[in-house]
Amino acid sequence: MTKWIDDFLALAEYKNFSAAADSIYISQSALSKHIKAIENELGVVLFIRSNTKAELTEAGNIFLEYALNIRKFSHELRFKLNKYGISPCICQLSIGTIPCLAESGIMEPLLRFQECYSNYSLDIQESDQNHLLKQLFQKEIDAAICRLDSLSRTQYETVPLVTDEMVLICNKEAFPFEQGSEIDLAGVKLEHIYTITNDSDIFRLARVQLNSIGFKKDFAGTFPRHMMIYPLLVQKGGCAILPRQLANLQMFPQLTYFRIRNAVKTQIGIAKLCPGNDNPTLYEKSSVLLKFFKNL
Length: 296
Description:
By secondary structure, the protein is of the alpha/beta class. The chain has three domains: 2-82, Orthogonal Bundle (Arc Repressor Mutant, subunit A), CATH 1.10.10; 91-161 and 268-294, D-Maltodextrin-Binding Protein, domain 2 (3-Layer(aba) Sandwich); 162-267, D-Maltodextrin-Binding Protein, domain 2, CATH 3.40.190. Helix content is 36%, strand content 24%. It is built from ten helices and twelve strands. It has helices at 5-14, 17-23, 28-42, 58-82, 101-104, 107-116, 129-137, 201-211, 229-236, 286-294, and strands at residues 47-49, 54-56, 91-97, 120-126, 143-147, 156-171, 182-183, 193-196, 221-223, 239-243, 255-260, 265-273. The strands form two sheets. Strands 3, 4, 5, 6, 7, 8, 9, 10, 11 and 12 form a ten-stranded mixed sheet that branches. A two-stranded antiparallel ribbon has the order 1-2. Helix 8 links the parallel strand 8 and strand 9. Helix 1 (5-14) crosses helix 2 (17-23), helix 1 crosses helix 4 and helix 2 (17-23) packs across helix 3 (28-42). The longest helix has 25 residues, at 58-82.
């Protein structure tokens, strides 16, 4: 029975034999046989089956609580036995991230997590904020490294890691100040302002920053990646409103950045979905990752 716990939990989560079978990489017929074998051993019906759904019975909900504990204790046992040389079970953890790992310093603790939990295989993929949140909802990724400012605390469990702020990036000839100096954006003549595309969270933050000084004009242009903006600033001038961590200007010595008085702040951290109302205690492997970062 215990060897098919993952099969039971997959069906309890997806409530559909086909989707559950795909999630654990077995055939639908094999999943059906495994569930039936558990039911025969227990002597109870765990699911009410229909053409499209498989809903937990009252007995199934009771078994769910114990199945979650069985899997939890199984993971903990593997962690403890791992240091004695027993071959661990590899568990893949899929993490989506906005383009920030190198600049934010988050890559180092991710590597430390991999060292501590060697039986976790990390699959890291990069995308924009909106796409990452969509992937979380569709359960295509387990957790996201993203900007936390606009996330609902009722929908997401989060761990803040880095605080950043919006800065002004421009040609060194524009202002005779030292890089990193603070300026009053309201006192600056702003022309030809650039930022990231308008479906991004950075666009929203840049717009909030400009609105705070009453600047209502449209951006001169937006780009998918910040590194596409810098050559334009070198060649044609203008300025960019971007998070400070993206002001990696080593390749562009003609450019500099200035801190903004009353700058809009942004937090980068790890987020995962809160447990669903249908199965609020359903085990999520991403909880291991969030717990690790909470204890840093």
